[in-house]
DNA sequence: TATATTTAAGTTGTGTACAATTTAATTTTA
DNA sequence: TAAAATTAAATTGTACACAACTTAAATATA
């Protein structure tokens, strides 16, 4: 067994599957003028409005270098607004616009459509989900993002 | 259960775990002057030398838009060379330099080091690997890349 | 066999990722 | 409480990813 053989890598399937699933989101997200990372930011805001850039970054594991331009795009698209927190001027507080809030309704069907495209039944979905949450825990990816 | 809740997404953990593992490769790859995608190309070449750009892209699921500049970097680093296939001038044939071949020896320890960093035992590793290969199969990511 | 189609790389443009650094605000501590 | 340390965003620079398109070579077909 050659550890340098591609078939013996654990990371590569994560990398390949992640890219593949994101590709399958595109047909559903493009009509909403969203990329996948932008969609993730919207998911966070639909859960909790009025959050700092820092806390969005905490949940999505993205830093300001990625989020600053991404937030700029979402503002240009009219989905969010930003303002400094008067209590702490270092913090940028992000909130949904009316348009951003109404977008949630249009995005409601996406998870079900994606599950169709992935062709997984409930048991398979749950099995994969459990395994991923467990591994995320081992890798310590879940402390502040609360995704599991 | 809100399907738009981040905790109910299947793709997000793939995306987050993939990025996290790649981040943990960095300390091992940086001394070899390789990024993770560049390392993947080297893995392909250490398995089989003298392959076309197209077939590298088939195995790694990357197109010429990604691979052309990446190959340029690996040439600059002195690890590979490129030439047109005289039998079919459309094809670019990639082969290892002597330095590229000797690099395999320096990379031999990386998979074991990564497994240490991930903190997975043999059973966990195998369990995750099986699940990933199964899902990759369902998503039809494995036809030509032969990684499983 | 000339034309149409297909194929492989390359190019262009947009959008992440992230390390490293900078700037400004807040908190700690000597 | 003034200086040091920390923190949150922004900035800079490098490197993917990939859609869409271009170019050139090879193959198919009318």
What does this structure look like?
2 copies of one chain form a homodimer. The first copy, chain A, has 148 residues and is mainly alpha-helical. The first copy, chain A, has a single domain, classed as Arc Repressor Mutant, subunit A (Orthogonal Bundle), CATH 1.10.10. Chain A is globular and about 60 Å long. Chain A contains 7 helices and 3 strands; from the N terminus they run H-H-E-H-H-E-E-H-H-H. The first copy, chain A, has a 3-stranded antiparallel β-sheet with strand order 1-3-2. Helices cover 59% and strands 11% of the residues of chain A. In chain A, helix 1 (11-29) crosses helix 6. Chain A has helices at 11-29, 36-47, 53-60, 64-76, 98-107, 110-118, 122-138, and strands at 51-52, 80-85, 88-96. The model of chain A is unreliable at 143-148 (pLDDT under 50). The interface between A and B is large, with 58 and 58 residues. Chain A binds a DNA duplex (30 and 30 nucleotides) through residues 19, 22-23, 26, 35-38, 52-54, 57, 62-70, 73, 88-92.
């Amino acid at each position: 067994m050659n550890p340098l053989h591609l078939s013996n890598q654990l990371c590569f399937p994560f990398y390949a599957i992640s890219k593949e699933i994101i590709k399958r989101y595109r047909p559903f997200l493009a009509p909403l003028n969203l990329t996948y990372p932008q969609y993730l930011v919207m998911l966070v805001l639909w859960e909790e409005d009025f959050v700092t850039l820092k806390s969005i970054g905490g949940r999505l594991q993205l830093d300001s270098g990625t989020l600053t331009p991404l937030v700029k795009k979402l503002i240009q698209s009219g989905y969010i607004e930003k303002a400094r927190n008067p209590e702490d001027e270092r913090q940028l507080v992000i909130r949904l616009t009316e348009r951003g809030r109404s977008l949630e309704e249009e995005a409601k069907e996406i998870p079900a459509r994606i599950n169709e495209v992935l062709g997984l039944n409930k048991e398979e979905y749950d099995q994969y989900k459990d395994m991923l949450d467990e591994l995320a825990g081992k890798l310590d990816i879940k402390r502040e993002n609360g995704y599991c």
